[in-house]
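Limitations
The structure tokens in this dataset are predictions for the assembled complex, not deposited experimental models. Users should treat interface geometry with appropriate caution, especially where small molecules or nucleic acid strands are included. An illustrative entry is reproduced here so readers can see what is and is not provided.
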Amino acid sequence: MAFFRYLIILPLIAGCLLPSGVQALWPIPTTLETGLTTLKISSAFYFDVQVEGAPSDLRDAVAQSQYYLENDKLGRLVVGRGANDTAAFATAMTLSKLTLFLANGAAVEPISSEAVKPLGTRSEEYALVIPADGSAATLTANSTLGLYRGLTTFNQLFYYYGGVTYTLLAPISIKDTPAYPFRGLGLDTSRHYYPVSDIQRTLDAMSWVKASINTFHWHITDSQSFPLEVAQYPELAIKGAYSPQEVYTASDVQYIVQYAAARGIDVMMEIDTPGHTAIMAAAYPEYVACFEASPWAFFSGEPPAGQLRFALPEVANFTASLLTNIAKTLPSHYFSTGGDEINKNCYTNDHPTQQQLKRTGMTLNGALDTFTQITHGALIAQGKTPVVWEEMALDWNVTLSNETIVMVWISSADAAALVEKGFRIIQAPSDYFYLDTGAGEWLGDNPTGSSGPFRTWSEAYTFDPLANLTEAQYELVFGGEQILWSEQSGPQNVDPIVWPRAASSAEIFWSGKQPTGAALNVAEALPRLHDVRYRMVQRGINAIPLQPQWCAFRPDACDMNA
Amino acid sequence: MAPSRYVGILALVAGCLLPSGVHALWPIPHTLETGTTALTVSPFFYFDVQVEGAPLDLYEAVSQAQYYLANDKLGRLVVGRGANDTTALVGANTLSTLTLSLMSGATVEPIASEAVKPLGTRSEEYTLTIPADGSAATLVANSTLGLYRGLTTFNQLFYYYGGVTYTLLAPIAITDTPAYPFRGFALDTARNYYPVTDILRTLDAMSWVKINTFHWHITDSQSFPLEVAQYPELAINGAYSPQEVYTPSDVQYIIQYAGARGIDVLLEVDTPGHTSIIAATYPDYVACFDETPWATYANEPPAGQLRFALPEVVNFTASLLASIASTVPSSYFSTGGDELNTPCYTNDYPTQLQLNSTNTTLNDALNTFTLATHGALIAEGKTPVVWEEMVLDWNITLSNETIVMVWISSEDALAVAERGLRLVQAPSNYFYLDCGAGAWLGDDPTGNSWCDPFKTWSESYTFDPLANLTEAQYELVLGGEQLLWSEQSGPENLDPIVWPRAASSAEIFWSAQQPTGAPLNVTEALPRLQDLRFRMVQRGLKPISLQPYWCAIRPDACDLTA
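Predicted assembly:
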């Protein structure tokens, strides 16, 4: 099998120093060999898809790749932007073709089917070889998803100057496979609504960081708005969306799911329950406790107050039915029921809750256990694996299926407690990965309030997914994600607040380490991240500049101790 | 004089509570009287310009006002966005005309001419009256600039629902005049370049909140994007690329565009520090160019400062500044003067040789340099503007007319005022828009931005321009500005990082107090700022969200203690 042959050859040369021109790749591949020969892309260049019965989304991916190859027109990030490279163009060999193969015996399925397989069963690895002599480049993988990842890498290899698309680093040999199966980006579309086109653009960018981000964690509803149209419960969006225009219709959701999957991205939806549900009271007032109670701070993490009366059987049944009705329309194996920040004060004086607890002799914890078993049971019956926030495992005594995936968010220090309980975890710690922090307080009448520091790309990049864990626990870490909560964000700033920062976790969880085996390092990474950022700008994403352009053209000149 | 008459009348009613519908106005006018009658704008509404020999830019301003009136289509920020207003609109009186006139005896000049008059001699006041009975509204001022300000206010008064543009607050009587003559916004176009279109869009937004000065920090150590006819090599060698240049016609276009919007362009060519890139053209004029470690020689990379002790550098700089200043209509020109690094000169042979041969100190050489450069500007009819170090850190003879910008700390205003110099408040601890994005230097993952934290709109809004000053010193405070330094900003995030935050200082320096005479207050201001922000979005700008939309349509519900 072609793929494994590379595995054996490449370690022999992996110890060599990477030339600076490898700035292009993000996330950095598992192994990488480059030369010093200039190679131009032929004006007649084409992708030769040697895949019998190639699915249409692979053909779409190839067409997209062709488009990027022609239109990225990214100048090298050096003074002159490549003007000094032209001398080498005259005699350079020309690359005319990239041939795509699947390994022998590989099943041919659409990328979008591969993308939604259970974590750990997806085949994302690929091998990419670009000879220096102009003979055909080859991309080999075990699945169409792997080919898609390889195409993304291929597109990052080339620069443009004066009408010529080229690399200075042929021959190139890459063998690549992700370090962790789950690499996500979380987006909250409830505090503010994002039009479908903004989500699509974000999915595109997710796929570019070498297709590394493979999960769109869609926190679609919350206490402020319920923009999701659910066929069986239409009133939730009619009364809970910010406006009739600010709704994700069933067909919007299907379109987004399909668009994501064709880019190798699984859509993991979250309907946060039983907290973060105040707006459900607009449709079902009798299901929500402490709705809009004030002072809100006593009842809720943020306004408005209001949580599902989870102790009531009719609420448990409603919630289970709601979640399964949504989940069954989605191809993902995963569905998040949230479970963060449940406020107990909300129930202390809630008559229906207290009456029910008294009648059944149950504690609030016992009622939450029942509620969770009913809602999770319904999802499991649909073939879904439940995902929850860390409080469900750490703050409450609730019986969860062993399959449950737990998301760490409050602090990176909490991962250890979760794996000690044997749960599989996703690293989404606010102290490294929250993209919204640092914008100051958004509550009114609080001019000196703080939201903690802004997480720079480099601070996020220093996150160690295995910190404080024993080796036996490593396999419980599925991966991680950066998250944009939208109290202070919306379509106006989604690009600059997310990009290129969200690429940090993409590399942490795809690459894990440098091809040399050395640990990831911010000084090594910065020039490559500049490259990603400038390529994003070329593709129309409004990614923030990381430094003055003077620095971007002069790698390392603006390091702290340069 | 009409404005004074209204001041007299309105004072009688100014004590009454402002109806919530006045959310619309920013900055809040000096005096304001509103009723509770609905008034719709007629589909045949027109602006009746009763100004003999009205200049072209006034007509353009009127068509712009007409455009905003027809196209803002801003729904009121309440649940339902105005759906509940429709009953009041049935049978409401209709406004058909706004009549614009100048006070008798006022001279008729273009707005662009009025906008560049010396500070303290511009006439920005106006009176706007909108009767409730549908009879013609009137806008009266002492200059076309005052009419322009009034048009801006007029456009903020109306909402839209279901095809109808209306106010619920007729009759409306406003007399308005700025508290401070200088209300600015500063943009650094050297660390990263901004295309002309981005600057034009920013000027539009500035005009919406009556900001009257664009402080254009056009060059710095990283790039010299300004094309100077007499010194073309500076941009040829110093711009990031031939495309990232402001040509003389770009600059004239920007100045004209700004002037027509009541905005004076204060150009800054920062000297003698912040000039490293001049070495690309005049290597003999720059000390410690690209010296390492840069941190010894500069506050940020690259190191390099003008050899101000050399007579040829003095002459060059004076000629350069005068050449630039002679092409701009503003009465003001900033020579910068911040962050001058002395170690840069300690081992600089040409500087030390000159100091030794003339037996002068570095301070004296700087004095000679400043007298020469400022003298050349004064000869061009310009008033020099400098950063605070030129007054507080160096012993230099400055003209009494010199305007000093406070930036290091708001604490420093007092020391500047004690020197008897006029000052502009631009303190980093309140007004720097770039703070809080973390360190941008490479290899520094735990670094913070030097002026952490992020300055929220409300923190900026609590700035007191007269803090620590004696009453006799108050008149020295010309106004203030918020600033965007561009190490981590560019066209990609310009809108969201600037707006609506830069409106905070616009209100501080236009209004200074509420119409009731009460001090400005963040709780009162937030709903109005939300309104401004949503109107900006309607006009195509991308300002950040201040709160979840749930809060924006429920004033005060998300206050800290609500």
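Some entries come with short summary sentences. For this one: The longest strand of chain B covers residues 31-50.
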